[in-house]
Amino acid sequence: MKKLSFIAALVLTSELALAQITLSVPDVNVAPGSKVIVPVSISDGEDVTAIQFALTFNTTLLSTPAEGSVLAGGALADHSVGPNLEDGKVTVVIFSGSLSSMTPGPGTVVSIVFEGAAGAALGSSTTLEPWRFRHQIRTETPSLWFPTREPSPSAIRETLPPKGRIG
Questions:
Q1: Residue-range domain boundaries for the chain
Q2: CB 96: neighbour CB atoms within 10 A?
Q3: Beta carbons within 10 angstroms of residue 63's beta carbon
Q4: Which of 59, 99, 113, 167 minimizes the number of CB atoms within 10 Å of its CB?
Q5: pLDDT 10s digits, 138-154
Q6: What does the DSSP assignment read for the chain?
């Protein structure tokens, strides 16, 4: 059986001072009129609490089913996946309400179901084009420190201006 060549040449990179995070998908083939599941992988999910990205594609060769097109991957902890399917674009938002990090190391964040167009010519190819890759790195939680002892009343009086004097 001949297949439509589906080149998913996607590499989305975001660099921070201490971390470089890459999203990628493998090259896959799909027969006209059939479905294919395309995994989107992260290079390292450690300290990543949220990701947003979009992929655009040629609608004469590919489509996405209305329901169940974006499936959560194994790299997610207690993360929610919010897909938005438009004509020729899949936008994915992944977030953790508890700010949990994804699983450390490489892993699949989502898998996207595509369908090859029934009328696509054999040997045709298309790419998934990245659009707006953003992510949130977990940082140290700010702390509020209380003094080990209460200030003495004399220390408070010394900081107040004398009565009747302003400024």
A1: 4-139
A2: 18
A3: 19
A4: 167
A5: 654 443 444 444 544 44
A6: ---EEE---EEEEEE-SS-EEEEEE--EEE-TT-EEEEEEEES--TTEEEEEEEEE--TTTEE--SSS-EEE-TT-SS-EEEEEEETTEEEEEEE-TT-PPPPSSSEEEEEEEEEE-TTPPTT----PEEEEEEEEE--PPP--PPPSSPPPHHHHHHHSPPTT---
Hey, which residues does 62 pair with through a beta bridge? 116
Model pTM? Answer: 0.70
pLDDT digits (tens, 9 = 90+) for 4-26: 444 444 444 444 334 578 888 88
Question: In this structure, are residues 55 and 10 in contact, taking their beta carbons and an 8 Å threshold?
Answer: yes
Q: In whole angstroms, give the CA distance from residue 19 to residue 46.
A: 10
CATH, range 4-139: 2.60.40.680
